[in-house]
Design goal:
Layout (H helix, E strand, L loop, with lengths): L1 H20 L5 H15 L8 H22 L1
């Protein structure tokens, strides 16, 4: 249970940082990217780096979404 609450806090912090860093992006898009990143990494053995890895993965997903939006 403790890991789940720590994960929820980490998700909130990563979402807040990315939303502040990318105010031009839709908040829902940022939240979705962070959630996808979390789902991909949630079973990592070393939990210490989960927030950093989650943020990097979410940034990658956001960059892909931005490129897709520019093409359309």
């Amino acid at each position: 249970m403790k890991a789940e609450s720590e994960d929820a806090v980490a998700i909130g912090h990563v979402t807040a940082r990315l939303t502040a860093a990318h105010p031009q992006l839709d908040t829902h898009l940022v939240r979705t990217s962070v959630r996808i990143a979390y789902e991909e990494l949630r079973y990592a053995r070393v939990r210490t780096y989960l927030p950093v890895l989650m943020e990097r993965r979410a940034k990658d997903l956001l960059a892909t979404d931005e490129q897709t939006q520019r093409r359309t």
